[in-house]
Design a protein that fits this description.
It contains 4 helices and 3 strands. The protein has 74 residues and is of the alpha+beta class. The longest helix is centred in the C-terminal third of the chain and has 11 residues.
Length: 74
C-alpha cells in the first residue's frame, strides 16, 4: 500500500535538476534566471548545489497566475 507525502510543508534540500523540473524549465534556463537575478544563487554543500524547499515553492507560486494558485490551494 502506497503512502503519499505532502512535500509542501517539508523543509528539505532541492537539487538543481529537481528545481528545474518543478519549474518546468531546463537547467540551462534555470541558471539563466539566476544570472538575471530572478532566482537567488544556490546554497553549497561541498560540490553540491541546493535550494530549500520553501524557497522553491515560493518561486513556483510567484511564477503562477492567480487562477493556478487557487487550483493549487484547492
Amino acid at each position: 500500500m502506497g503512502v503519499a507525502i505532502d512535500l509542501t510543508n517539508t523543509e528539505r534540500r532541492v537539487s538543481t535538476a529537481e528545481f528545474a523540473l518543478r519549474m518546468n524549465v531546463t537547467e540551462k534556463e534555470l541558471y539563466e534566471r539566476i544570472k538575471d537575478g530572478r532566482i537567488k544563487p544556490p546554497n553549497k554543500d561541498g560540490r553540491k548545489n541546493f535550494w530549500l524547499n520553501s524557497y522553491v515553492l515560493s518561486c513556483i507560486l510567484e511564477g503562477a497566475d492567480d487562477n493556478e494558485i487557487q487550483e493549487l490551494r484547492a
